[in-house]
Amino acid sequence: MDLELFFTKDQVIKVKAKEKQLVFKEMVEKLQDLGLIENKDRYYAQIVHRESLENTGIGNGFAIPHSRTETVSKFVSIFGIMETPVDYQSVDGTPVEYVMLSIFPSDLSTKYLYLIGMMARIFSNPEKKKHLDDNRTPAKLYAILHKEAAGYFKSISHVDDAEYNPVENLQGVPSSDLDLIIRLDRLNNMRKENDSPEIGKKIEELRKLVDNRSLAYYERMSKKNHNPFSIVEKNSCSGCHMQIPPIHLKEIKDRKGIPVCTHCGRFLIIV
Questions:
Q1: Cα Rg of the chain, angstroms
Q2: Both 173 and 152 in a single domain?
Q3: Residue where a domain terminates, one of 125, 156, 187
Q4: pTM of the prediction?
């Protein structure tokens, strides 16, 4: 899949601002300079409001501020390379070096989830992250991301019928993929009550965006259990009530891959 479906090389910029909200302001102003939005103040306010609800620093020096709004009709995104790392209060406490700011209408939410899944995969890989760090000019970085986007689409399109060990075979799948799976499960449940063409279309579109390893595992677990998800409560799985090993619990909290219970195999959700 072509990265230009999300942003072009002109939408990769160096950001001089050193504070979070000033970063948002600088990037939104650039979007208006590029003719991609009007009324920059409106979108700046929306981004700031969304950030106040939930921190978008997802770790590994990467942040994804965004606004879902019906005042735009197309997907708009811009990728910023921080000249100075920004204190962002990210989930892992790491200062942010890269910011991808997006503005999009509700009907393009699936497209946004795909983009986040792809970026999370790149930034969670130490070798790929180092490659980006070593090539911090807009032109070089865009070329790298463009290549990675094509590779990511190819990888999630690959079908593998091998047996799935949840701990071994879901390693490397970004934790953000779990959001896609939860959404897919919700649509599948809605389909049981209302098998409409519209729901069926959304399911098929979403299935194309989920890594085939996690998709196959989800389908197996759905057949095995009425609910393939469980909550982490007091360091235990709410599905089988078994305690989660400390080393595995740490990996879950560090957001390394999609978390699953090593005892019953359910997807684990931390609330």
A1: 19
A2: no
A3: 156
A4: 0.65
